[in-house]
User: Fold this.
Amino acid sequence: MKSRKLITIWRVFGAGILGFARNAWLSLAALATMIVTLSIILASVVINATFSHTIEQIRSKIDVSIYLKDDITIQSKDQLLDQIKSMPNVKEVEYISKEAAKSAFLELFKDNIDLQLAAMSADNKIPATVRVKLYNPDMMDDLKQFLDQPEITELQSSPTSYSGSTKEAIDSITKATSFFRTAGIVGVLVFAGISILIIFNTIQMAIFNRRDELSIMSLLGASRWFIRGPFLVESMLIGVLSAGVSIAICYVLFVVSSKVLTASTFGIMDVAYSRQFFSDNLLLICLGQVGLGVLIGVMSSYIATYKYLRRNR
Amino acid sequence: MILLDRVSKSYGKRKSAVLQRVSLHIEAKEFVIVVGASGAGKSTLLKLLTREEKPTSGKIIVGGIDYETLKDRDVPKLRRKIGVVFQDFKLLPNKTVYENVAFALEIIGISTKEIKHTVPRVLDIVGLKDKQDNMPMELSGGERQRVAIARAIVRQPKILIADEPTGNLDPKHAWDVIRVLEKINKYGTTVILTTHNQEIVNKLKRRVVTVSDGKIASDDSSGKYTL
Assistant:
């Protein structure tokens, strides 16, 4: 009995593959739509991951620089550092002495001789700096309040730098990302819907073409699964093939032609990361795409065959 | 073997009755001919037996299976026990004679080895062993009908239903088909045959059930065509 089941499963798969080959032109439309849908989904995932990574990168670079007067005592400097360190949102506090700040300045502008000479000839005008990194750059109000206290401003040579422009850039990228995410979800839903409808129609047409054969099968006592199976296999094949092609398309987009992509996104997108994300998660991406393709295919052909079988018991 | 108890069937909103309180009992290994004018309800009667239709009321028991409690998903199992031959043959045009008969075994999961062993033997019974590689289009009507019979009996059903199998055939080919049915009945299969052919009915001298206006008009154990 068990071997009969195995034989039947084998025959159902064979019939599915045959059906796919026989319906090649009909399946082509379903295949194309499914490829577009899966490619959009995959590209959205990679682009989203890349933007999130970029934002994280920029966020980690945001810091607050406090410039100290030359004449403050070591005691008050240490006290200030301790106070800042004890704040909950503070990730890292770094003290850069006047000398270190000067060498960093010289290193930074090593190609600009005028600035180098200016920095070397005069007294060291570059102040000692306390650089503070935060866990969450969006919540720097506590630190700001603390630094704005008169006794603290008294220690500073010039106003605190909050990397303000960087924060604005982050905000605009975040906004763009969330817009892209919403657009991506809407696009994915629309294309998934179209895919389901087209596959549904493909299978319905295949059923229509083979209605005599199906009714004979049913009259001879073929089980529902024997009738339905080949169509499910056919749409599963469409799903698997589309997944393969969509992965190839995204591979070409993110890995092979990454230069073109970098240029077309005006350098906003860190394509190197996209490439890495793509390679690091290749197995997961393959499984996800195949799973999704098979799910969409099987769902639509299940509904189509269900409708047929309910009418023709 | 087959029991119909006060079975009625009506269609549509107006509930025009095709069969009215039909009761019939057919023993195992019987050869029963069902006759009646077109639209009398013969085909509906057979469709009720193969569960292509459900009765509006009444009880049907075939081979111990009560159709009232039969679930839709178990209908294929029922159909595997009943062989059916249709007037229009219902052969798959893109399959050879051999493949058409093998198809009935394939769908129930019989191994290819067993199929190769069984199909030629059954084609031999219906006299078509030398035509197993032909396509249905290359055969005469009678030959096609014999292929359909081979397909119906290849699973050795207990019951064979033949719905006007000679309807599209000339007298010579019609008799070829009837001879095959008699042979199958001799092997122990219950045969239910519907026909319009008066000569066949009269010569066979078998039980004749006459259906008229959805009712059983007569049931004669060695009957004649009386319409």
About this structure: Chain A has a mean pLDDT of 81. The first helix of chain A runs from residue 2 to 22.
